[in-house]
Each structure stands twice: as C-alpha cells, then as structure tokens.
Write a structure and sequence with these properties.
single chain, 126 residues, 4 strands
Length: 126
C-alpha cells in the first residue's frame, strides 16, 4: 500500500504555460496518459506533480512541502494568470478495513491562509 500526493494546477489550455509551470516550480510534471486530441490542438489545461509514499518511507509532510513551493512562486504563477483558486493539493489513500485521517491545525491553517484547496480521495483496497 502507498499514499499518493498530488499538486494540481488548472489553467487556460497552453503548451507554453504547461512548460512554464514546470520551470517556475522546479518540478517535473507527473507522467500522464498521452495528450488527447483536444489537448494536442489547444494545449493541456492541467499540470500535476505526484509523490508516492510507501508504508516503509519516512513521513512526508505534503501540505507544507506543496504550500511552501506555491507561496514562494505565487507571483510568477500570477504572471501566467494562475490564481491560487486554480491550485489544489490531493491526498490519495488506499486503506484496508478502516480509514482514519488526522491533520494538525497548523497545517490546515497554512492551507487556509494560502487559499489552496485540500482534496482527499480514499478507497478500500482489496
């Protein structure tokens, strides 16, 4: 079992913007399925970075990691017409038998202060 953490940014379709986001954040986008016909014509409108945390890995503070990056680069992203309401952090979690999540108030406050959405997707693993 593993946890996955994603930073997702939605923007007006553009190959240039897609590449610029990677350069500004100094992160490589996650491997994805090939671009659709619409994306090939108009450019992609979603950029995402993913980190996989295996059960044996040390704790990864994904909220602080991603919010620190976004806060430090928000002016450059704003120049690309990307506002924080277009940015979300995803926690993807497979569980067995029971799902429990706990977030420290300081991290939730950091998210709230930065206006970045936290999205959680949980599913039961067989």
């Amino acid at each position: 079992m593993a946890n996955f953490y994603n930073l997702q940014i939605i923007f007006e379709p553009s190959f240039e913007t897609y590449q610029s986001i990677s350069e500004i954040l100094a992160l490589s986008p996650s491997e994805r399925i090939p671009f659709s016909e619409v994306e090939l014509k108009n450019g992609p409108n979603l950029w995402q970075h993913e980190v996989e945390e295996k059960i044996t890995d040390p704790y990864f503070d994904f909220i602080t990691y991603y919010t620190d990056i976004i806060i430090s680069k928000s002016e450059e992203l704003f120049k690309l017409e990307i506002n924080r309401d277009a940015i979300s952090i995803w926690f993807l979690y497979a569980y067995k038998d029971q799902c429990n999540l706990e977030f420290e108030p300081v991290r939730l406050k950091k998210l709230a202060d930065s206006c970045i959405k936290l999205c959680i997707s949980c599913w039961q693993e067989d």
